[in-house]
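Hi everyone, sorry if this is the wrong subforum. Our group has a chain we'd like a structural model of before ordering constructs, and none of us has done structure prediction before. Sequence below.
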Amino acid sequence: MSGRSMRVRGPSRPRVTTGDAGDDARLVAGAAARDRQMFAELYHRHLDSVFARLTRMIGPVPERDDLIQHIFLDVHRALPRFRGDAAFSTFLHRIVVNVACEHLERRRRARTQPIDEEQLDTLIDPADSPENRARQRQELARAWRRLESLSPKRRVAFVLVVIEGLALHEAAALAGGSPDAVKQRVVEARRDLARSRAEDEAHDEAPTGGRGRQRRRDPRGEGP
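Answer:
Right subforum, don't worry. Here is the predicted structure as tokens:
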């Protein structure tokens, strides 16, 4: 399938079709045989869930749409090797998690902060009052900044278990490792986030000028 036909346009949540696992099996078989129409149907059926999960993991960043294309190209290449040992959705979202982790690791090494107000506006109800939108934008900016303090593995585990509410064994099936390993990552993520929140609060309470201003430590250099 060409890049043009697979392109995600704009920041809004895409429209998808629905179907059951039996439909997935039929479409996967056709797509694995390089039937372009079957793959297009599979793509549109699962686009919304990929869009939503990737956004929760990496944020509403400009490169998100390019990463979605990368995910589905990886799926397209891997389909001939898919043997149905797990559900197609599990196979797909393992790729989503892998792509998200790789992107977060690149971002961590570059020490970039990709979230800006324009991107955060895509997560805020445009019908809200200007005051509420400004408050939500500030709260979201802090939340994303705290998530940026986590290592990729801890961040992904936290998103899957705490934000999405997956069971440990479900998160482990997507993120790799045992349920106990995922649980430990969540524990460590909670600890790191609590520390980041405490630093935010100390920063807010510190005097704004002179020696009283506290210098915030960047925790992203810590272990996985």
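For your construct planning: Residues 1-19, 210-224 have pLDDT under 50 and may be disordered. The chain is about 65% helix and 0% strand.
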